[in-house]
Hints:
The protein has helices spanning 33-47, 56-67, 70-76, 83-90, 96-99, 104-112, 125-135, 147-150, 194-204, 218-226, 253-256, 259-266, 272-282, and strands at 17-20, 116-120, 143-145, 211-215, 230-234, 245-247. It is an alpha/beta fold and 283 residues long. Helix 2 crosses helix 3 and helix 12 runs antiparallel to helix 13 (272-282). The site of magnesium ion has 7 residues, from loops. It comes from Heracleum sosnowskyi. Residues 152-181 are annotated as: Disordered.
Amino acid sequence: MEYENDYQQYSNSKYECLLFDVDDTLYPYSSGLSLQCTKNITEYMIEKLKIEESKVPEMCVQLYKDYGTTMSGLRAIGYDFDYDDYHSYVHGRLPYEEKLRPDPVLRNLLHSLPIRKVIFSNANDAHVATVLRILGIEDCFERIVTFESLNPTHESNVSDGRENQESNVGSGMDSDAGADPPLPKSPVICKPFENAFEQAFKIADINPKKTLFFDDSLRNLQTAKCMNLHTVLIGSSHRTTGVDYALESIHNIREALPELWEELAKAESPYSGQAAIETTVRA
Ligand SMILES: [Mg+2]
């Protein structure tokens, strides 16, 4: 992309990278896609893992809370299943075309920012690719970090419970979890755990101190803050601990973070004039 050539010119900028979650961040929760995803997860637990139906909703919520994703939690408590099978059941059956639309506003916002952009999602490659394609923003990102990037040695159904020394545990993420007994470990690497962030930084060559991280999950942002990232909560305008900026919608980036464009306007580059005009037109 022509934009990539511009990145180096702004290396003295406050931000060198914009890191984005996908679900409920690049499109709103109100789309209903995540709700459908949760329904598919509960169906998978009932149909494929034969978990008693009455226990599933509460279990689903608890595992998500403890482990970052329900899938990670299911693995931690002893369920063994093929990751691809899980993803195709949970994501592969989503009514993407019905729930999502192209988002030219977001596309223009992303393209007008001369800062490298990276995706960091707990979801699988196929899901992320489909979402980005339907939103019409698949060419806006330099790198895409997904479930497969974070779990490269776990593509098949392999588990002896010891293959990953850096396994995630659910305790310690919530302030009220201190008195709980230790939870079993999961072999799955995912947000909000620090090893997922460390891996993403390595894969995408990210300097967290110069990166702005967008996510709808407060827990993900709180880990991110501990990892020295600058943080933007999406889906709420309430700032809280660990949140530097809070936006109802990703569409509000320009209003909340005008400095991202000001850097561009100030820069002495052949592109600055063009971008300044663009900014004025949209204001
Ligand atoms: Mg999300």
